[in-house]
Structures are given as C-alpha cells and as structure tokens.
Amino acid sequence: MKFLALSLTFLLLATCSLLGQRLSEMRVNKSFHQTTREQILETLSQHYPVNFYYKQQWLPTPTVSFQFNQTPLTEVLSQLFQDTDLAFVPYGSYAIVIAPKQALTQEYTQTYFANKAQQSKAEGPAAYDIVTLGDSSRMSASGKATISGKVVDMITGEPLAGAALYIESVDVSAASDEEGKYRMSMPVGLYPVEIRFVGFEPKTQYVRVLSDQVWNVGLLPEAFELDEVIVREKTDDSNIQSVQAGVEKLSVAQIKKLPAFLGEVDVIKSLLTLPGVSTVGEGASGFNVRGGTIDQNLIMQDEALVFNASHVLGFFSVFNPDAIKEVVLYKGNIPAQYGGRLSSVLDVKLKGSNYDAFKGSGGLGLVASRLMLEGPLIRDKTAFLVGLRSSYSDWILRLMENPDLKNSSAFFYDLNAKLSHRFQDGSSLAFSYYQSYDNFRYSDQFGYAWATQTANLTWNQIFSPDLSSSFTAVYGNTDNSSYDPEGFDAFTIENGPKYYKIKENLFITPFGSHTLNAGAEWIRYLSKPEVLEKRGDISNVTPRQVEKDNGQEMALYLNDEFELNKRLSFSLGLRYSFFQHIGPAQVFLYDPEIPRRPENIVDSVRYESGDNIQKYSGWEPRISMKIGLTPSSSVKFSYNRLYQYIHLISNTTAAVPVDIWQVSTAYIPPQSTHNFSMGYFQNFKNNEWETSLEVFYRKMNNVVEYKDLPQLLLNDHIETEVLTGIGRAYGTELSVKKITGVTTGWLSYTYSRTFSRVNGNSSEERINRGAWFPSNFDKPHNLNLSISVKASRRSQFSFNFTYSTGRPITAPVANYFVGSTVIPHYSDRNAFRIPDYHRLDVAYTIDSNIIRRKKLKGSFTFSIYNLYSRNNAFSVFFKRDLQSTANAFKLSVLGSAFPAITYNFEF
Amino acid sequence: MRHLHKLACFFTILTLGCVERYNFIPEDPVSLLVIDGSIHQGKGPYEVRLSRTSAFGSAPFSVSDAQVTLFDDLGNQERYEEGLEFGVYEGGFEMQGQPGRTYYIEVVIRGNTYRSQPQKMPSPIRADSAYFETLVEPVVSEEGNVTEDRLIKVYVDTPTRQGEGNVWLRWKYDVNYAVFERDCGPLDLRKTCYVTEITNTQDILLYSSENTNANQLNGFLITTEDTYPRYAFSTRHYFNIYQHATTLEAYEYWQKVRRVANQVGSVFDAPPAAVPGNLYNVNDADETVLGFFEATAIDTVRTFMTRGDLAPLVVSEFCGFAPNSQPPNREACCECLLLENTTLERPDYWNE
C-alpha cells in the first residue's frame, strides 16, 4: 500500500493502542536479508491478511535484516520500527497505520480527532474507507485544494479516458482526458467522490482533502456478463459537462453488438450509425462527416496516419476490433493538437499496456478470423500485444458457379504488435507496429494489391504532477498497385504515399482548472513515383514512371481547456500550420489566359530534391465554449478554422486503392474551412437518457473537384484535370440515447446539406456553368435507430435501422447516335437523386457461458444484414439492353439479406 | 482505368447486386444538336448526320434543311446534300480525303452556324491479317446462369508504328453472310441475300502507341461472337474489320464515350458526364453541341469461316428445320429482303 489512507477517525481509535483480535493472533514466519522496511511491509501484506497505511517518505531507506519465527505481528512491527521515529496503530481487524510518533501525538490532537470523528460518523464512511489527501500543514489560506491524478484500469494499469469524478455536495466534477488525467478543485473537507466509467465497477471513495495532492484512482473492470450493457466509454454526464461538442466515443463492446455485414465487426461502419456521419453507398470505403469528403477525415491509429482504412476495397475496415482500446471521433470542435484535415479526426487508440495479466480475445467469422494476445513480458514493467486478423473469404468465391468469380480472390490480413515499457518514475516507452495486406483479383482480368506498414515510437514522461510529455515518432508507408494480369496489355501500376511524422505534446495543468496541451508536429510526405510496368512476357506495355509531389507540413499549437466558473467552460486553441511543396518536381507553366490543358503548357521549371517550390501557412483558431444551464443541461458553441495540405485525388464514386494522395502545389492550393457549431445537451432521469440537438455550418475554400471524365493516373500534369472551388455545408443533428436498462441504444437524425461551386475562367473550368451543385454524398435526411435489448441473462437482441435520402447522381437524360454507337447524354453534375435508402439489420448474441470467473468466455452472434432484402438503389446508369434499346437501370449493391454467424471469445 | 469497369461488374455479381430497369423520366426533355460525320481517304460518299437527342428508348430526331459544307486546309470546299434519309447529308463527290490534309465541316441551321475543330487526317496503318479461333467456353448470362457455348474469337495483327509519331487506332467491325430463300412459289426464283450485322455497337476498340515501345500488335481481340443464328454459318461468314488510324483528339473522345456508354453504375464507376465533342456554335459559345467530326484513314482486313469450322455443330439452312434455324420473320423465308440490313448485291470480297 503506497498511499496513505490516514483517517482522522481511525487515528482517534488508534490512541487506544490496541490491536484488534484478528491482528493480535497473527504470527509471522519470514526472514528478510538486507531488505528495506517498505519491501518488508509489502511482503507481509502479500502473505498475511493485513494492510499497512503509511507515506512512503516516512520509511527509512536503509536495509535491515530480520528473522521471524512464529513472531506475533505486533512484535514484528516493534522490531521493524525500533530505531525509528515511527509508531503504528491498528485499524479495524485487518489494517495498521504507520506514522511518525509526533504526528500521532501532537498534530492530530485529541479534540481534533473527536470533532472529526463526529463529522465522519455523520457522513457515514468507515474510517478505513477514507483517503486523506494532502496534509493540514500545507493547507491553503483560501480553504481550497486541488486534487489531480490519473484514473486507471486496476487490472491492466491502462489509463481510462473519459472517466467521471463527481462530488455531489459541492457540485464539483471532472472528466479524465485521453491519458486518464483529471484535475478538480474544491474546499477542504471530507467528501464522497463518485468515480464512474462505463464497463467498470463504479466506485465511491471518501476523500479527506487537506491540501493539493496527487491522487490516482483505479477502477475494476466489470465482469464479463450479459447484463453488461456498454453504450459508450464515457461518463454518465460527460456529454453535459465536457466543453467539447461533437465528440463521439464508441467502445469496442458496443461495436461488437451492432449487426455487421457478414458478421465482421467494423469500426468504420459502426460510425455510420452516429449523427452527422454518412457514406456514398454500401461497399464504399471511407465515410463523410458533416458534408466533408472522405479525405477530410484525419484517421489515426496510435498517432499513425491511416491513408486507406479499407479491406476488400471498402467492405471491411482495417482496424482489428480486439486490439482497439477506444475510438473517438471529433466532428465538432477539433482541439488544436489535431490538424491537417477539414472535417473530423478519427482517433483509434490501441491496447497494449496490460502489465499484470495475460489475456487474449478473438473471433471466428464466415470470412475472417482474428486473435489478440496481450500481457506482461516483465510483470509491472513490460507489456506486449499481438493481434492478427486474416481472411479466408476465397472459399466463398470457390463456391460460386460463375467461373470468373471462382478464380477470383479477396484476401487480406492485418497485424498489430505493440511493446510497452514503463519506468519507475512513471514514464513509459511504447513501440507499435502495424502491417496490413490486401490482394484482390478478379479472375484473369484485373487485380488490386495494397499494403500498409506503420511503425510508431511513443515516449511518455511525467516531469511533475503538473507537467508531462508525450513524444511520438511515426514512419508510415503504403504500397498500392493495380494490375491487369494477362495479355499483351498486361501491366502493373504502383503508387502510394510514404511519410515520417514527429509530434511532441506537453500536457500541463498549471493552476486552477486549466488543462493545457502544447506542442509541435512535423510530417514529411514522400510520395513514391507512380510506376507503370509490363506484366508477363508477352506484354508490350512500355514501362514509365510519373514523379509525384512531395511536401512537409509543420504545426505549432496550444490548447487550453478550463472552467471559468461552475457554468462556463472553455477550450481555446490556436494552431499555426505551415506547408512546403518540396522538390524534386517538374513544374509546368501554363498560359493563364486560356484553360489549363497539356497543350497550353508554355514552359516548365525543374526543381531538385529539397528545393522549396511553394509555401502555404495559416492560423487555425479552435474555440469551444460550454454554458451549463442546469446540472443536467448545457449549451455549447464552437468555431474552428482548419487547413488541409494533402488531398485524395479520386474520380470514382468510391475511392480505390490506387487513388493518389496529392500534396498541395501552386495549382492545388490547400483546402480550408470555417466550421461553426452549436449544441444543446440535456440529460434526463439521472443521466439514463441523453439528448442533444446540434447545428453546424461550414464554409470551405479550395475544395477539390474534377473536370468531366478526367484522366488521373499516370498523369504528370494532374493540375489539368483538377479544379478547385468553394463549398458549404450545414445541418442539424438530433440524438437521443438511452444509456442504461434492459433496453439501450440510440436514435440519431441528421438533416444536412453540402454543396460545391466551381466557377473557373472558361466553360471547361466550370461545373454546371458555375452554379452551386450538391456533393455526391449530399443526403439531406438521415435516420439511424440502434437498439439493444437484453432478452435474458445470457442473450441479447439488437437491431439497427437506417434511412436516408437518396444521394445525388448525374443521370442519363437523353441519348443520341454517333455512327452506330448509342451515347447517353448525362445531366448536369449531381442534378438528380436515386430513390431513398433504408435497411434493417438484426443480431442475436448468446453467451456460451455465464460463469463469472470461468477463464474462457465466449459468445455467438447471429446476424442478418438487410433483413427484408431491400433492393436499395446505389446508382442509376445507362445501358443498352439485349433488344438494342438504350435504357436507364438502377443498381442495388447488397440487394439481398446476408446472414452470418460469428463466435467471439476472450480468456 | 479500363478495368474499373470490370471491377464494377465483379462487385455487382459478388454482392448479389441487382440491376433493374428504372423508369427514369427527367422533367424537362433535353433536345441538343448532334453532329456526327467523318471523312476518310477512300472514295465517297462521306456522311454527316444531324439529329437531336431524344429520350431513352426512342430514336433521335433527324434535322433536315441544313447547309453542310466540308472545308480543307487548301481552301477547297464542298457542299453536302441531304440524301434520301432525313438528316443524312452526303458529300465527297468532289473532294476526296487525303492523309496529311486538314478538314472541318460547317453546318448552318436556321441562321446558327456550327463548326468543327480542324482534323488532320493521319496516314493509314495497314493491318497484317485477321483470323479467328473457335472454342467452347462458359457463358454467364445476365442473371448469373452459366452454360457452355461455342464461341468465335476474332483477332487482328497489325503494325503500330509509322515514323516517329504516335499512332492511335480504333476498330469497327461487322459480319456478313448469305441466306437463301426457300422455294415458296410455283417457279424456282429463290434469291440470295447478303446480310450485314454489327453485333455490338457499344464495343469501342481503341489502341494508343503512347504507352508501348512495341512496333507490332499481335492477337488484338476484336470480338467474341456466339454462333447464332446457325444459318448465318451455312455458307461463308465474313468478319470485316475496319482499322481506323485517327487523331489523339478523336482517340480521347472515344475513350470518354467508352466510359459513359459502358457503365454499370457501381461505386467504382467514374462519375459520368456529358461527352464534349469537337463542334461548337460560332454564334453562341454556351450552346452544347454533341458529336464528333473525324478525319480517319481506314484499312480493311477480313477473314471468313464456313460451317466446317464449327463441326461437329449441325448448321442448318435458312428456314430449315433444325433447332435455332428459324429466321426472326417467317415471311423472310420467302422474301429475304425483309431481313434487316440486307442487300441482293454480292459484296466484292465474296468473289475473292
């Protein structure tokens, strides 16, 4: 027991100098050689039913040697502290307090103890339940004190982000940040502190606050039981109390309960049930947040940038659910420590700090299986995590009658590995490695292969209770290829981004309620050349390569989150970002008076490696304010300015692996946005129900659009195909969540619109003649209902219903002949819409065991995706049918019900 | 990214995707002028067709009473005349196309003048040969059913270099076969008709030498044909391949046409768009004019097969009693000219 649990009440009792019956009977059989007193006390507490309460600094550091043979415990302690200034007093039947004799006899006087004893009696806690923080000698003149520290998982030692600490009697609350740190100020006194974190046993701890003090809190995970209904890893009222608006957290437990396509638990797809998050269609990679394109989401896995978050071209995501600790989506206020994208930040944190016990989990599904192992390599010091997931979906393809499908392949795997080490001073070092690979081949006709590797080194150091640092160095590499396997035109095109990233973040709690994040970030983008190679002996393709642009992005930031008073909280951030387009590059110059086309190139300039070609920079203020209206309601406002210096160049409705990540150049300036949002948050029935209504408006500059039917691959003058314009998006998000009870879940409704406008100098540099047009993911109405019902102790039923307005499309409106070929004539861009979309998924989860302490715990999930086989239109397109008449057709991608069974387990 | 199209097909099948007819009727009918024509190095007549776009499922509207004039870079011009077919203007009686010359057309319709961008006719690329192979392959129907069928694949071998510059090629093809009428009257006056079919008008075959260092293209697949109707193979069955050497501008135009004319609507389709041609309204730059005027150099190469090449398949006569032998119109058994695209004139190459 490292922390003093020194109760004034039990000190009063201690004056009786009587050991309890249980303690007095205790006999010690142990010998200690050259051992510190602290180690001896620890050993005794481990081998005998007794706890010791003391301050570490009180114990003399020299080592001692003793041999005890059936020695009474009192005698053992007497010998132990014989030549010291320490005395001991028993408390209750199983505890002993060790303290300086002076403290026991003078500082805590008889009267003082008597008064406090009376107070404690009224407040109710047993003496040994009270933790005393600080000491009276350091008591502030203001009568106030601040406690701070970390909330951690007692089993794994991992910090718990979003845990709530609440003192009802003085209405003081705090929430732990992403590192588990919290800070709260209150008048000196004795209080019950409620500590809650979903998925963990709630705890009420009496603390006696005397002066500023660090207090770390551990929570025990709830046992794996079916009555565990975790909706979010956040506190009961953090939606009200937190100054951050538009932040969504999903627990893996919740993600696993959502019905999933082919039973594959999917982080990205689960985000689509949240308000303000949508997609262009089933099977599409990426997601759209508040009217942003998919490249406007900063996706990070332990600070490593993820450029392609999809397996099987978008049907599954790359995140192994077993290796994930938490998933946080910032879609409203984005704190200044994040930047580089306009719409959102998806921060995926991995596990990997389990220093105490060996654990594992995994799942067996129809198309893939996964296994994750974690635990200590050196107990309390070094921990590891290894997670592997691999598909075997090819067997499904082998069952197909279609010979082309039979000879196709859709294979993927991903590997997570993490090694963490913590030092005695509280600092820690973690190395994580991620690798994924996809190979997708359609018979002998075409294929895609893509692979990602990231390596990440993180050094966390605590300099003082008020200052800690997190240093991250990341290397990331993505190799994409597209190939035509056979024939005289067989080829392979390879490309992909590579980057290095360094980030230093200081976490400072200087005074009062202020929580500062300050730091710097540097990212070097090294786009590999786009390479065309011949494939096979008979191919007559001429190999060539196109140089892609490189750059570096730097940022300095400061973000302060503080409480001005009980009602008013702020998060004020400022980020300064700076970008350089760097050589080598061949930059073409165009006649500015005429459309930018290859034939209008008038000159070119060669820049060598490291040459500065173009610079951009900008200030990015991030402001968020919370006004508490009542204990259960608040309003929040936020304004964010963001810049984006790298863009996904893609001309397909959904991105494909070889789409190009293009850094800003003189012709493709950085995208930027002003994001405004406001929200009203109200909880009911003691936070059992959470509701919110948020509105947002975004004004974007230099959004990337394309000329009609552009050629983007192997194009060394891509600026001739890209257009830039302005964009705007606005909307309302309504959310109703039921957090606890037999039935839990959420209803989210979003009304949102998103438009772009490209009005260049010539007709070919305008879209729809320069008028505003809806983006292809502009879906005004979006409704999601996700409900889980605990059917029995062992089983749970959940369903998910989704409805949205059909997305805009460019539709064929007429046809004509050129020669004997019928050509469809298409409308203005995105002038029409496909029919509305709706779908119902169901899942039923049953536990294979319910014994709380049984080692292997498993569950089966039966799910049906698209229960009523709705033929949702994905698109409307032109086709000339067998009767040689041209007609419009609609395509439904997943036009059938997809049943699946998955077995998940942990041990 | 030609294989994006294949990718889209793959997902449609894999995901039990469903394609259904969709009655898509825009509120405002679209009526845009379409100008479509070409000139080549062979003898005329050359055609320019004028029409207006129409709703799906209906034929385009012909545009009559226009003045169509062909110009070249030497200042020559020739007025085209509207022929028997509405909207089809014929010329080339005075000016014959020559490789290396630049041509454009001008069309005047009710006071509006439309003009094409000038097109320089390239030199023809002489194809070496065309040939075919027959094989038994699985055939997947649109519903996903798989059957085995006898198929014919037709290939071409051709050089792909001419001097230092790049070469852009486009192929068109048709088939030609003969049918013999049945004896339906008291006198044996049976006629022989020659039928020309373009089996897949949406198949746009393109080649660019830009990305290759090869001087020769061998085994370029022109078409995969089935063996129906069987009577089409009762005598000679010709495959005529027209190899167009064309311009970069025309090549890029047809690339775009191929992308919009063969979409399957999947997530991997490039967003479609109207295909801009090379014509414009001289008086109103904002008017959208569709179509293309092209100057190409054509080389024709052909091959033929007979019923022996399909053995052991039984090939019946026109209007015979073997399976799959019925003509689409029973009256055609006694009057073969009732068949579409039919003539009594025996093509010259039948005599070779």
Chains forming the largest contact: A-B, 81 and 79 residues
Secondary structure: helix percent of chain A? under 10%
Envelope shape of chain A: elongated
The gross shape of chain B turns out to be globular
CATH classification class of the largest domain in chain A: Mainly Beta
Q: Which H/E pattern describes the elements of chain B?
A: HEEEEEEEEEEEEEEEEEHEEEEE
By CATH, the architecture of the largest domain in chain A is named Beta Barrel
Major sheet summary line of chain B: 12 strands, mixed
Q: How does the major sheet of chain A shape up?
A: 22 strands, antiparallel, barrel
> What is the oligomer described by this structure?
heterodimer
Residue fraction in strands of chain A: over 45%
Spans of at least 5 consecutive residues with low confidence of chain B: 1-5
**Low-pLDDT regions of chain A:** 1-21, 108-128, 223-235
Broad structural category of chain A = mainly beta
In summary, what is this structure?
The complex is a heterodimer of chains A (907) and B (352). Chain A has 907 residues and is mainly beta.
Keywords:
heterodimer, A: 907 residues, mainly beta, Phage tail protein beta-alpha-beta fold, Maltoporin, Chain A, 2 domains, 22-stranded antiparallel barrel, 5-stranded mixed β-sheet, 11 helices, 52% strand, disordered N terminus, B: 352 residues, Immunoglobulin-like, 12-stranded mixed β-sheet, 6-stranded antiparallel β-sheet, 22 strands, 7% helix
Topology summary:
The complex is a heterodimer of chains A (907) and B (352).
Chain A: H1 8-14, H2 21-24, E1 27-35, H3 37-47, E2 51-53, E3 64-72, H4 73-80, E4 86-91, E5 95-100, H5 101-107, H6 110-123, E6 130-133, E7 144-153, E8 164-167, E9 172-175, E10 181-187, E11 189-196, E12 203-209, E13 213-214, E14 217-219, H7 238-241, E15 247-250, H8 252-257, H9 267-271, E16 277-278, E17 288-289, E18 297-301, E19 304-305, E20 310-311, E21 316-317, E22 324-330, E23 344-350, E24 359-364, E25 368-378, E26 382-391, H10 394-398, H11 403-406, E27 409-422, E28 428-442, E29 446-464, E30 467-484, E31 491-495, E32 497-508, E33 515-527, E34 530-534, E35 544-546, E36 550-563, E37 568-582, E38 585-590, E39 601-607, E40 612-630, E41 633-644, E42 646-649, E43 660-663, E44 671-684, E45 689-706, E46 722-738, E47 743-757, E48 773-774, E49 781-790, E50 795-804, E51 808-809, E52 812-818, E53 821-826, E54 832-833, E55 837-847, E56 857-865, E57 875-880, E58 886-892, E59 898-906
Parallel strand pairs in A: 2-5, 6-12, 7-13, 7-14, 18-23
Antiparallel strand pairs in A: 1-3, 4-5, 7-10, 8-9, 8-11, 11-12, 15-22, 16-17, 18-19, 20-21, 22-23, 24-25, 24-59, 25-26, 26-27, 27-28, 28-29, 29-30, 30-31, 30-32, 31-34, 32-33, 33-36, 34-35, 36-37, 37-40, 38-39, 40-41, 41-44, 42-43, 44-45, 45-46, 46-47, 47-48, 47-49, 49-50, 50-55, 51-54, 52-53, 55-56, ...
Helix pairs in contact in A: 1-6
Chain B: H1 3-14, E1 18-21, E2 33-39, E3 46-52, E4 61-62, E5 67-72, E6 77-82, E7 88-91, E8 102-109, E9 112-116, E10 119-120, E11 129-140, E12 146-159, E13 168-180, E14 192-197, E15 205-208, E16 216-225, E17 237-246, H2 248-261, E18 279-281, E19 289-290, E20 293-295, E21 297-305, E22 342-343
Parallel strand pairs in B: 2-19, 2-20
Antiparallel strand pairs in B: 2-3, 3-4, 3-7, 5-6, 5-8, 6-7, 8-9, 8-10, 9-18, 11-12, 12-16, 13-14, 13-15, 13-17, 14-22, 17-21
